[in-house]
Design a protein that fits this description.
Helix 11 packs parallel to helix 12. This protein folds into three domains: 70 residues, Arc Repressor Mutant, subunit A (Orthogonal Bundle), CATH 1.10.10.10; 123 residues, ATPase, nucleotide binding domain (Nucleotidyltransferase, domain 5); 160 residues, Nucleotidyltransferase, domain 5, CATH 3.30.420. A five-stranded mixed sheet has the order 6-5-4-7-10, sandwiched between helices. A five-stranded mixed sheet has the order 13-12-11-14-15, sandwiched between helices. Strands 1-3-2 form a three-stranded antiparallel sheet. The two termini are 31 Å apart. 39% of the residues lie in helices and 21% in strands. The chain is built from 13 helices and 15 strands. By secondary structure, it is an alpha/beta fold. The longest helix has 25 residues. Strand 5 and strand 6 form a beta hairpin. It binds zinc ion (ZN).
Length: 398
């Protein structure tokens, strides 16, 4: 084969592998459609990749006919996603077919610290790998979702005070040192947005805003299919948009931020006299059980968040606002007033009216986004004709 033919073949292989990676799995006919390559080229390359252990095929049906579904093989590697929340840790292990092979959550104490929480995360991850019969070597990378703005270049929180006990911690470096795998750190709402646009309700959209209403409030912005982070990772930090100029001082040092009005302490304080000391989880449960006081607090939060999201909607003009986070588990109690406030605040248009919908992925959005971040950041080796080009994680024969 001449050099140019060989590089063309390699480019076609890369195109096919990247296309399978993007969709998780496609039939050969769909691969022809998605890549624009000829059926013969797709068939030859899929056979080669199958022989090299890069892809797997399974029989499936399309329009009532049998077809071969092509997915990236498990031996290409696993991606780990770690979501560190205010009160819990969630880990998912996913493969390149976009299947989650293991998932687990662990409660974390109030105001937990970086060192102990990262230790717990590593122990949990190693245990999960053991249970699925995999080793750390097979993990192509670890994605971490943090409830704070993150400078993705360094993996550090870019605004001090937002996450106590985590300031000045080089999360990416600390974790990479512990597990010797590539680590990618991002803001949780950004990763929720990435998951929704890849796997969730945003799959049909190029521009969307994902709102995470939880202990604090944040938003992830997707523009033209890509997460927009801004220069310091603070894009979409709606929790720190000032809504009350004379309001309380926020963790970030500013006054009257949205989080001082709808963050967990601001929701729980007004319930103390009537309901006693509740956790955010109790408020969600009681609102779902019809408790008027808890429902009122959540609904008012929805309206306050919606007014800020309307501003974001005007700035970005997305097709869709997806609402996730713990408070979204109250369904219409949060989302109806949030939607009403958004629609009242954006310019109505006939071309593409803005929709406001609940997250399809629920509490899993952020951790699935962390897995997706790793998959997107990892290049699958496709140079099959060279010796020693086995995919990462492939076990040596014998
Ligand atoms: Zn603030």
């Amino acid at each position: 084969m001449s050099g140019s033919q060989s590089s063309l073949r390699e480019a076609n292989r890369t195109l096919i592998v990247e296309t399978i990676k993007q969709y998780g799995g496609l039939t050969q006919v769909e691969l022809v459609g998605a890549t624009g390559l000829s059926p013969a080229t797709v068939s030859t390359i899929v056979k080669e990749l199958l022989g090299a252990g890069v892809v797997d095929t399974q029989t499936t049906t399309r329009s009532g006919r049998r077809a071969q579904m092509v997915t990236l093989a498990r031996q290409v590697g696993l991606a780990a996603g770690i979501q560190i929340g205010h009160r819990h840790l969630r880990i998912a292990l996913g493969d390149f077919a976009h299947d989650v092979v293991a998932e687990q959550t662990l409660p974390l104490p109030h105001e937990h610290r970086a060192d102990t929480s990262l230790d717990r995360a590593v122990l949990l991850l190693v245990g999960m790998l053991e249970r699925v019969g995999a080793s750390l070597d097979e993990v192509v990378g670890v994605g971490v979702a943090l409830p704070a703005p993150v400078d993705t270049a360094t993996g550090m929180i870019s605004v001090r005070g937002v996450m106590r006990g985590w300031d000045d911690v080089h999360v990416g470096t600390v974790l990479a040192k512990r597990i010797a795998r590539p680590v990618y750190v991002d803001n949780d709402a950004n990763l929720g947005a990435l998951a929704e646009v890849t796997l969730g309700v945003g799959r049909e959209h190029r521009d969307l805003v994902y709102v995470r209403a939880s202990y604090g409030t944040g938003a992830g912005i997707v523009i033209n299919g890509q997460v927009h982070r801004g220069i310091a990772g603070t894009a979409g930090e709606i929790g720190h948009v000032q809504v009350e100029p004379q309001g309380d001082i926020c963790r970030c040092g500013s006054r009257g931020c949205l989080d001082t009005v709808v963050g967990a302490p601001a929701l729980l304080d007004p319930l103390r006299a009537s309901h006693g000391t509740l956790a955010l989880r109790d408020v969600v449960q009681r609102a779902n059980a019809g408790d008027p006081g808890c429902s009122r607090v959540v609904a008012d939060a929805g309206a306050a968040i919606g007014r800020v999201v309307a501003g974001l909607g005007m700035a970005i003009n997305p097709q869709c606002v997806v609402v996730g986070g713990e408070l979204a588990e109250t369904g219409g109690t949060l989302i109806d007033p949030l939607r009403a406030a958004v629609l009242r605040g954006v310019l109505p248009n006939e071309i593409a009216p803005l929709t406001v919908v609940p997250s399809a992925l629920g509490a899993r959005a952020e951790v699935l986004g962390a897995v997706e971040l790793v998959l997107r950041s990892t290049e699958v080796p496709v140079r099959l004709d060279e010796p020693g080009a086995a995919p990462p994680g492939a076990r040596a024969a014998g």
